[in-house]
């Protein structure tokens, strides 16, 4: 069966699922967050998965999207859809400027540089009280249900918006992967020196991928702000809740593949919620400890991600049947 038929079936199934759930219940909220973070992992995957540039600074672009759209809404009454475009443009410019001093770096040096950038923005957001609200954060003004203002009392419309975002960003990932840019990114990933020898402009390729990934990440920051109605600097610029989570989702599911971040998000987000529900009342930090142990166990079993684990399992079954 062709991959696009499988994708269409999965999208239709995902569109039907909410009809069986309480539109304001806990289950649909967890699924909506899973879709949002699957899209975030997919945006990270363009840089981290295809080019093996392990960024720990995507929270910077996520936060820029959240703050830009919310500040424009509060102060000028602009629709979050317009704010989303403005946030994506600002994040793209920020990624472009950040790329110049960091693209020569590799491995953990690149990861630390991007991490420092998001930390700088988090500190600025926490201290620029007159614009960002400081440590207290910002609240999205309430309004009646409105697609233009991206506000709904029910969670179901947010579910479909997050699903649409995931489909669009996955489409962008597939387009990049099969374009000339994708081939250059994979050449860069395998051997940067060899790629340069055969004529690949590695700096230009890295910058292009970083700008695309940053712009997409910023749009998700806007959706997060409208979905949660409130955020502070730690929630959108935080290393653990955003940057590390995006990287773990993609790596755990299968970095460099289109389904990897989706598998990773639909494993991590529900598992994290389950650990919080079952263990948070029994001891401080116990749920985070259990969640961390589970993640370590999965990585130790198959470092290439769950997708590789599934593929290997299917191959073994086929060999047994044929023998």
From TrEMBL:
Keywords: Cell membrane, Membrane, Transmembrane, Transmembrane helix. It is found in: Cell membrane. Its main location: membrane. It comes from the Bacteria. It is a multi-pass membrane protein. This is Branched-chain amino acid transport system permease protein. It comes from Rhodopseudomonas julia. The chain crosses the membrane at residues 25-47, 54-74, 80-98, 110-138, 158-176, 246-269, 289-311. PANTHER family: HIGH-AFFINITY BRANCHED-CHAIN AMINO ACID TRANSPORT PROTEIN BRAE (PTHR30482:SF10), HIGH-AFFINITY BRANCHED-CHAIN AMINO ACID TRANSPORT SYSTEM PERMEASE (PTHR30482).
